[in-house]
């Protein structure tokens, strides 16, 4: 199982959207991948948990965390092989760590945390809560947005991850992200 949580090495820059639910991560991932003519990694847990809800009317349980983590890393590794120099990730294992701790009384399996911290990302975009909440079957904390944002910011600070908080409407976030990614590409001397 541990092998399935390992991030494969590639030459592409990896940029991850990181933050609480309903903060625009998927929209930004798609927009940035389109702008830079490359791949983006969808959030595995969305389809996995939607199917569980549709089939059983059950929400995420602790026994779902490893299947979600394995599925997310498999998607990321596949898309990294297909990406053109930059890969945008809608989420990553560290986000799964945050959700595990938030939903299961502070618990996170040490194996998951180990692989989340071992995985490399060139930049995290921490999405702020200043966009409207959009309800769906899976989102459940509309009144805890500030609290959840703090839970996502904490590991970025604690583990010294390179991040920038994206605020404002979709267009403002997109413009900021494009500028920062272009700067990162120049800094890392990546040819597109």
Automatic annotation (TrEMBL):
Gene3D superfamilies: P-loop containing nucleotide triphosphate hydrolases (3.40.50.300). Pfam families: AAA_28. Residues 14-173 form the NadR/Ttd14 AAA domain. SUPFAM superfamilies: P-loop containing nucleoside triphosphate hydrolases (SSF52540). PANTHER family: NADR_TTD14 AAA DOMAIN-CONTAINING PROTEIN, TRIFUNCTIONAL NAD BIOSYNTHESIS/REGULATOR PROTEIN NADR. This is AAA family ATPase.
